[in-house]
Structures are given as structure tokens and as C-alpha cells.
Write a sequence for this structure.
């Protein structure tokens, strides 16, 4: 075992490592970037700059290429540079092979291509670039509604099981169709019956996928939490399905309540994840610091989980996280980043001059971000 592999013994599940990195990023009329063409080496990149210069916008663009969504939860229109018609985001990803991603978005036209070919099926596209983002909104994983936690689970499954996203889309489609029926003045019972059968069939597959995932994911999160918090408390994650035993039976039993609420009340679209610190709900009893640590631990575990399954660490996009942690927790988080880097990962981290982690040492690329430009600095 070489020394690099030895250190990686801490990373459960990783046997060999493939370096995947974003080698080039090209932006046109994206947020405050009129034009940007920049090459990135593998390794650690620090994006430094004052507020409102465009640091987070870079991370948003990279995440967008990976997931086709903004981690800020906004639609395409908001990302078009003011006064322009559409944005372009493109990049070259180097891993086992090289991939070229191009996306253009305007109110009228949407194009996504991979290696020069238009993308027809999302499942063909989504593995080209994998990222995990750390941002202030992550706190919603702990403090927010169940929806945030379901999205987290779903993203994790979509990033690791090719069939999951289409399955979820079909399930959500049948939930909506069924809800539309329930909202009609007189319900078409025969139609409802057939939607219910579809719902149960798809829903059971989702439940199975989530039920299998959580026990695999939970130990990684527990370990990450322990490391960041220096063993302060024990994290446990429990899957809380809306369906307790039999979806079909419970759906039938909910008919009376459905009549009142006019929507589908049981099923995986109502699932949750319980986050427990020393067996107490983190949302209800955790301190702000504990909640932040927990949110970061979930993301760290997501990265490790992806690395374990795909044999290459995802690109980490870390937005404004250092400022949120006290010195002790910061010193627990940094070794995780250090490790990510040593496993051949690529990391992009935004910081203002005041809070950049000088502890990280010098083996990193610094970039100055000023009003929509990026300049390499040493
Ligand atoms: N659609 C858009 N068109 C043009 N400019 C935009 C658009 N959306 C955001 N901006 C500009 O982008 C800048 C914000 O960029 P960003 O969020 O990346 O800042 P930041 O460097 O991360 O700052 P902070 O340190 O405050 O987080 C602001 O100047 C904002 O006005
Ligand atoms: Mg920012």
C-alpha cells in the first residue's frame, strides 16, 4: 500500500481512485459574468474576493452543469446576466475520458449537449460531472421541512442509481395526476383506482431504494460528524417512511381523510429523515453550532458515499462555510478537506480575505474574484 492509499484507509469503500476534474469553465452572460474562459488544474482552488464579486456564481455554474439545477433554488431566468437573452455554461471534465458539456438557456430555447451530441435522456448525462455543494442553505437540511431532507435523499439516489430519477419523476407525476382527480367535484372512482395502483407500484420501489440507502449512508454521516465535532455527540439517522407497512392498505385507509384534504396523504412524497444527536432530535434540541456541524457532516458523507460507489471523489463546492464554524469545529472540518484533496479530488472554496483558511497551507491555487472576473494569484 503506498502512503496515499494508506491515508485513504479512512475512506470506507474506496479501493482505487480516479481523478475527475473540471479542466475548463466557460461562461457567457451567466450572472455577473459577461465572458469567462478559465482553466482549472486538479486540486484545491480558493476563490477569494469581496462580497458580491461573483464567487458563489462560479460554484453555481459548476453545480448547474452537474445537476441541471441551481443550488440557490432559482430558475434559469434569474441566472441570465441582466439585460441579456440567455446564458451559456460549458466545461470540459477530465476523468477516465474527457467530456465536453455545453448548455444554453433562454426563455425560448434550451440546449444541453454532451460531447457534441444533444442529450436526450437525463440518465445518460448525469454521471458526466458529480459535485457536492456545501452552502449556507444546507442548514435547511436540519432546520427546514421534510422536503429538504427528501431532496437530499433523492439527489443521493439519483447520483448513485441510474434508474432512480426517472422512477421518481413517474411517481411524482402520478401523485399530481391523482391529486388532480381528488380535487374534482365528483371523483371518478375507476380512474382513481388505476392511479392508486400505479402510485403504490412506483412508491414501493422508491421506499425500497430509500430504505436500503439510509443504513449505508448513516455510518458515514456519523463518522463525519464525529470528526468535525471532535466526538462531541453521536449522530444517528433514521428513515421515517410515511408508509408504515403496506402502502396499498394505508392508502385505502386514508380515503376518508383524502376526501377532506383533496390530496394524496400517504406515500414516499411524505417521507422524512430523523436526525438524532445523542438520540434527541437535532432540529428540536440542537444548538446552532450543532446544526451547522450536522449539515456539513451530511454533505461530507454524501461526498464519501459517492466516492465509494463511483471510485472517484466528487468535486466539492464549498461556499462560505468557514465563517460559520467556531475555531474548534473548523479545525475538525479542514482535515476532511485535506483528505478530499489527497484522494485526488478537486475542491472549489469561496472565502473573503478575512476568513480564508490559512491552516490549509500553500499547496492550493488562489484566485481573485473581482466584478465578474477571475485572476490567478499566488
Ligand atoms: N442575473 C444577474 N445578472 C447580473 N448580475 C447578477 C445577476 N445575478 C446576480 N448578479 C450579481 O452577482 C453578484 C453576486 O455574485 P455572488 O453571489 O457570486 O457574490 P459573492 O462573491 O459570492 O459574494 P458574497 O461574498 O457576498 O457571498 C452581485 O453583484 C449581483 O448583483
Ligand atoms: Mg457568495
Amino acid at each position: 500500500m503506498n502512503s496515499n492509499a494508506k491515508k485513504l484507509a479512512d475512506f470506507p469503500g474506496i479501493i482505487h481512485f480516479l481523478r475527475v476534474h473540471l479542466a475548463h469553465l466557460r461562461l457567457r452572460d451567466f450572472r455577473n459574468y459577461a465572458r469567462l474562459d478559465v482553466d482549472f488544474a486538479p486540486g484545491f482552488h480558493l476563490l477569494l474576493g469581496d462580497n458580491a464579486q461573483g464567487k458563489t456564481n462560479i460554484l453555481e455554474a459548476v453545480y448547474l452543469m452537474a445537476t441541471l439545477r441551481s443550488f440557490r433554488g432559482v430558475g434559469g431566468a434569474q441566472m441570465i446576466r441582466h439585460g441579456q437573452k440567455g446564458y451559456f455554461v460549458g466545461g470540459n471534465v477530465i476523468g477516465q475520458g474527457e467530456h465536453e458539456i455545453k448548455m444554453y438557456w433562454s426563455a425560448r430555447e434550451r440546449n444541453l449537449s454532451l460531447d457534441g451530441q444533444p442529450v436526450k435522456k437525463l440518465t445518460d448525462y448525469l454521471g458526466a460531472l458529480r459535485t457536492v455543494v456545501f452552502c449556507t442553505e444546507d442548514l435547511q437540511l436540519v432546520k427546514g421541512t421534510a422536503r429538504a431532507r427528501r431532496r437530499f435523499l433523492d439527489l443521493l439516489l439519483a447520483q448513485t442509481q441510474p434508474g432512480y430519477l426517472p422512477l421518481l419523476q413517474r411517481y411524482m407525476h402520478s401523485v399530481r395526476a391523482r391529486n388532480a382527480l381528488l380535487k374534482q367535484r365528483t371523483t371518478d372512482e375507476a380512474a382513481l383506482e388505476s392511479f392508486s395502483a400505479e402510485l403504490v407500484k412506483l412508491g414501493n420501489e422508491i421506499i425500497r431504494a430509500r430504505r436500503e440507502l439510509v443504513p449505508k449512508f448513516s455510518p458515514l454521516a456519523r463518522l463525519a460528524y464525529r470528526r468535525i465535532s471532535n466526538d462531541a455527540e453521536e449522530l444517528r439517522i433514521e428513515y421515517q417512511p410515511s408508509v408504515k407497512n403496506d402502502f396499498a392498505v394505508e392508502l385505502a385507509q386514508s380515503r376518508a381523510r383524502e376526501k377532506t384534504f383533496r390530496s394524496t396523504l400517504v406515500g414516499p412524497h411524505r417521507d422524512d429523515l430523523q436526525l438524532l444527536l445523542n438520540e434527541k432530535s437535532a432540529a428540536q434540541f440542537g444548538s446552532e453550532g450543532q446544526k451547522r456541524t450536522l449539515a456539513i457532516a451530511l454533505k461530507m458523507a454524501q461526498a464519501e458515499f459517492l466516492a465509494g460507489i463511483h471510485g472517484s471523489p466528487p468535486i466539492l463546492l464549498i461556499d462560505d462555510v468557514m465563517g460559520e464554524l467556531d475555531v474548534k469545529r473548523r479545525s475538525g472540518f479542514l482535515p476532511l478537506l485535506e483528505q478530499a484533496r489527497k484522494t485526488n479530488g478537486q475542491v472549489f472554496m469561496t472565502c473573503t480575505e478575512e476568513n480564508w483558511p490559512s491552516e490549509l497551507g500553500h499547496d492550493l491555487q488562489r484566485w481573485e474574484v473581482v466584478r465578474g472576473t477571475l485572476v490567478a494569484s499566488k
